[in-house]
Each structure stands twice: as structure tokens, then as C-alpha cells.
Amino acid sequence: MFAALYWINAVLTLAALPLWLLAGQLTGRLRKARTLGRLRRTSWAALTATLLALLPTATTAALIGGALGSYGTVVMADRLYVQFPMILAALAVVLVKGLPGLWRTARVGGDAAEPVPVERARAAAGPWLVVPVQINAVVTAISLYLWWISPPLGRSAMVWWAVLLVAALALVVRQRRRRDALGSESGGVTRLVSVMRIAAASVVVLVVVGGGLVWSAERSRLPERHSANGHGDYDLGGGPDVPRAAAGHQHAVPVAASGRSVDSLTERDLSGPVRRFTLTARTARIRLDSGRTIDAWTFNGSSPGPELRVRQGDLVEVTLVNADIEAGVTLHWHGYDVPNAADGAAGVTQNAVAPGHRMKYRFRAKDAGSYWYHSHQQSAEQVQRGLYGALIVEPGPVKGADIAVLYREWGTDAVAGGARVFGTSDGLRRQRISPGTPVRLRLVNTVNDPVDLTLAGSPFRVAAIDGGELHGPGEIRGKALPMAAGGRYDLTFTMPAHPVELRRADTGGPALVLSPDGRGRAPAQATNGTFDPASYGTPTATPFGPGTRYDRHFTLNIDSSFGFFDGRPALRYRINGRVFPDIPNMVVREGETIKMTFVNRSDADHPMHLHGHHVQVLTRNGKRVTGASWRADSLNVAPGETYDVAFKADNPGLWMDHCHNLFHAKVGMMLHLAYAGVTTPYDSGTATPNQPE
Length: 693
Ligand code: C2O
Ligand code: CU
Prior knowledge:
By secondary structure, the chain is α+β, with helices and mostly antiparallel strands. It folds into five domains: about 1-185, no CATH class; about 185-220; about 225-260 and about 540-685, Immunoglobulin-like; about 265-395, Cupredoxins -  blue copper proteins (Immunoglobulin-like, Sandwich), CATH 2.60.40; about 400-530, Immunoglobulin-like, CATH 2.60.40.420. The protein is elongated and about 100 Å long. CU-O-CU linkage binds near residues 374, 486, 611, 656 and 658.
């Protein structure tokens, strides 16, 4: 809804601009009418253009003040404080002054051929008639810029009020001069002069706009080498819960020369059973169930790569070998809170592993649950091409059926053709399970957008989200399960005597049919509403609650804007008005309690993913989460939504925090959580082997 309203407003504003320019132009020309007939015609034309322009503008005002405004001042803040009052003010003057003036001029009496008397001409050139129409063009232009190019944010938004004021004054002064020149002998410029003026103005506009474009394109170029250590610009987490003085006091801390390197933050305790795996990244042709083949990038020849299943408490040792992936690869354990050195973020915790090279990852499987792994070098492309697989940590011996299902879509962007798959199944896959068997389906969404899956044929429970078991999950039936990009849901149920089917909540896509005899389908059913983790399960003691005092509070305002990223035009999703690598590191100290607020003011879903930590979701849209403790590592923040989350800074390192729509990350929606004193020797950029996204 928010996204639709957002674009409706953006497009209406675009439509309004030419109309207001035309109306302003016509109104400004009233003074040039030589005859009464001409004066009337021009007035009618100006009146019509103004009324036409009023439609889209009044609609946008109504939408901002109404439907969009209802998303609240957190989401709509500067639009409500800047755009909205500007539009209202401009509309008010044109309704009270401009339109009545035009109306009077349009209805002036007298013979059409008669010359316009000087007083009439002066009235038609009055600033109170002309400027109200023209100021709407100015406001619409500002509004257009704010919708498409740079959404207003914080105090800098006030600049636009200044721009508007100066423009209004300039227009009034110009109009007074023009009016006063009427009737005086020297008045009026020749046609040639006016054409030259218009030409000069056009050149100035072209140079300014063109120059601005070239300048922003150049300025957006990424440095050839960039360090995640940051460059003196840090976010120390202000906000309501952090006394200003305390935050300011931290200023000197961030990068201590005596800092620990990310390389030193490895798994300490190497005791206990070791599970060893080797994952070899290589190009290979894979085959889907339908027989269709895809040239993929694989681990050990398959995509998804091998399912890594370990037992809670095991020491996991994975050797990554790169056979032939030119750009290099890494392994990132998505959702798993590994020691920083094993995080697999190219250019942050390691160099990408070049073809012919290998690297060992080691971490303790201390948390049970469903996770996944993927390359974190050029991840937008590499995950898309197939470099990912499941990581399952079993809490103990598995009873019954325990099945990991990785949802993905072949055939968007990087790979031609299209197929939605569970694993490698692009159609119907069957599995025989006898009635009474406890079943756990571990769903993983590996694509860049949210997906709604559903289970038909049996009631079920959502036992876990993002690897975290939920407390007291109730039985639900037929609900659509909205899965964030990168997110996981574990579903549990007891196998009935008839078929049960996992599929997309809409039609299309693969289906996994579990049945006692390997036959049949679950009956088609309409989905029964959407599952909401915010009110599911029974409340339990949580580490963070209403009474928690936070050491730091970071706010991430997400906006959409057209602009340039690395010299190329792009629709970017900026965080607090900036994109990678200019978004300041969020700096914390070990042991601190951190609150984070996501505000999605943009038109797209943003599955926010913080490495190395799980966050507890506190509120959504200002309302407290009421169900079981909801722990997430991939949290979809939909357009118009706000979330407060909290976590304990208990895993020192330098951690990526980014949108798991990897295409968004690739155009700059990426920043770092940095523990004070932790530094990285690695760099990213074209002069390095590392491009994390
Ligand atoms: Cu699954 Cu930083 O990513
Ligand atoms: Cu995003």
C-alpha cells in the first residue's frame, strides 16, 4: 500500500509540473495582450491550465495528509513538515488570489478588438495574480526533487523552505517591475530580446542540470580501495536512550591503534567432536527435476550445495576450495553467530579465495536451528548463480522426518529463463512418510524478495524463525507464511493419513507433497490469512523489555532515490541519506545493550540482515510485539514500516549489516557494525580482490 501511494504521488507530481509551468507561463503573458479578446483568451487558457494542475497537486496533498500521513510522523516526518505545508501554502495562495484574479480577467467586458486599457493590463500583471500560479510550479519542482532524487531528511530539509522563500521573493520583485513597466514608454522588450532571454535561460538550466548530473555521477564513483575500518565518520548511537554526553564521550574510541584484528577473533575452544566438510566452488551444469539444465555456480557440483548437518556442540570445520570461480569466493554462514574471523565477508573478514586456493572456516555449533551458507563475494551475482546451501544444526537425535527446503528462483537477472524451485525441484516432488511421523520442514528463502509459502492438508506450527525456537507456538491452518529474503521458518506437524503439500501461497511454483503412499495431492485451499510473527506464540521472559536501558540507539532511515552509484544511474536505497561506503560505521563496545530502529520510507521491502548477532524484535510500527520472543537475523521491513529491535553486543568484530535484497546491497545498502578497537587488514574495491556484494 505504502509503495503504491509513494509512486502515485511521485507520478502525480511529475504530471503536475508541466501543467504548472504552462499555467505560470500563460499567466505571466497576460500583460502582453494587446486586445481585450486576446486578454480573455489567454486568461481562459491560464485558468484551464491552473485547474488541470490543481487536480494532481491537490491529490498529492490529500494523500500526504491522509493515507500516507497515517503511516505516522516517524515514517513521514520530513514530508509532513516540508512537502505538505509547502504544497498547502502554494495551493492556498492560488485558490485565494490567483484563481479569482484569473477569473476576473477572463470575464472582463468590452469589444474583442478594443485595446487593453493600461489599468486593466496592470491589474492582469499584478504580483498577487501571477506569482501564486508560478509559485506552485516552484513548489512542484521542489516536490518532484524530494520524491525522486533526494527525500527530505532531518534538518537539511529546512533548506527547501529557504529556497522557496527566495524564489517567491524573486518572482514578486520581477512581477512588480513588469507591472510598473507597463504604460511607460520604455516598457516592453522586443521579440528578439525576449527570445534571446529564453535561450539564455535554457542554456543556464541545461548547464546546471547537466553539470549536476556529471558531478553526482563522478562523486558517486567508488574508491578503488576502501576499508571497513571507516574514515573518521562514526555513528555512536545517539537517540533517546543515550545521554548526549555519554555518546559524545565515546568519540575518541573507535579505531584504537592497539586494536584487535578481525583475524584474531577465531574460535577459541577447539575441544569436542569435529565435523569436517569440504566445499568446492566450481561451475557445473545442474539438472532440475523437469530435466531442464542450468549452467550454475555450484558447491561440489550441485546447487544448492551439500546440506551441512551437524549436531549442536560440534566443532564445524569447513574447507572452502575454489576450483574455477574467477572473481573468487567466500563462505558466509547466514544467520549463524560465528566468530568474526569465520564470517566470510570479503574485504571485511578475509580476502576472497581465488581460483586454485583454499581456506578453512572453523566455528562451534553452539545454537541449534536452520541456517544457510552462501558466498559473500559479489554475493548478488554468486548467490543468484547458485553458490549457497543449507546449514542445519540438530539439537539432538532427529525423531521423524526432518527436511530442509530451500526456495529459490532461477531465471531472474543473472540466469536466463525462469524456474521457481525447492532445492532442484521445479515441479512436483513426492516423499513417502507414514502417518503419525513427526515432521519438521525447514524452509529457507534464498531469493532477494519476500515469498509467501504455505502448507496445505494439515494444521501445523511455526516452531522456529531464523533458527530461534518459538515459545508455545499454537496450531495454525492454511496461513500464508511471509518469509523475508534470507529468512527461515521451521514448520512442525504430525503426518496425517492423507497428503500434505508445501507450496507457494499463490499459484505457480514447485510443490513438495508428503503422503503415506507416495501418491495424491492435498486439496486446493484458499489461504486463510497471513501468519504474523508479532502476535504468535506465548510470551516468555525475554532479554529485552520495556524497562531495558540501552547503551546505544541507532536509527536507520531508509529512503528511495534516483541517483548514481559508482558512476552509473541507479535507483538507490539510502540509509540516513547515504550509501556505501559513506554510511558511517555503527560503533559499539563489547557487553553493551543496543537498540536499533529501522524506518522504511521507501517503496521497497528491505530484509535487514546483521551479521554475527540475532536481534529481538521489540516493536513494529510503534506497537509492542505480543507473542513469543521473536528473534530474527533477516527482518523484512516493508514499505512504510518501522521496527525497533534490540541485541546484546556479545560477539566482537567488524560485522556487515545490509539489506538482503542483494541487489539493493550492491547499490550501496550496506554498512558495518564495528566493535571499538577491532580493525580489519582487508580492503574492498576494484583495486582489491574483494567486492562483498
Ligand atoms: Cu546472507 Cu551478508 O548475508
Ligand atoms: Cu533493500
